[in-house]
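Researcher: Good morning. I'm working through a list of sequences from a screen, and I'd like to move beyond sequence-only analysis. For each chain I'm collecting a predicted structure so we can compare shapes side by side. This is the next one on the list. No need for commentary yet; just the structure.
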Amino acid sequence: HTQHTGLEFSLGLDITETLALAAVYNFAEHTYENSEISGGIDIQGNNVDTAPRQFGNLRLRWTPSECVTSELELVSMGEYYTNPENTASYSGHNLLNLRTQYTVNDSVQIYANILNLDNREYAERADWTTFTDDRYFPGEPRRAFIGITINY
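Model: Good morning. Structure tokens for this chain:
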């Protein structure tokens, strides 16, 4: 049995005619409510493993013209415990993404995205087991995409 409570905040702000800032922040508490023994420890009241208390993103959008938009995004994943006993944890990570779109006309957009801009090593997911100790499932390295969207 677990209990989950939390809040999510979002904010959008036009700084100038061409610059806008947007943010989303999530805060949550995820706890075990049953008195269960795991690894010789009663986990009642412990944080649920692999459930961060905090995560969110911050986006700065630049629109220098009606047809061009660029956005720099900071994605933040907070620290979380990786086992029910709350004796091991993952420190979380911050990633930068860059997205640009050029609108050719009402039907055609061209885009270029670079995700994990600074090529940071991070875990997409992390956990801990008695057989393996810490396990980290690597996140994607820097990657770039160029594409076209056609609406008809």
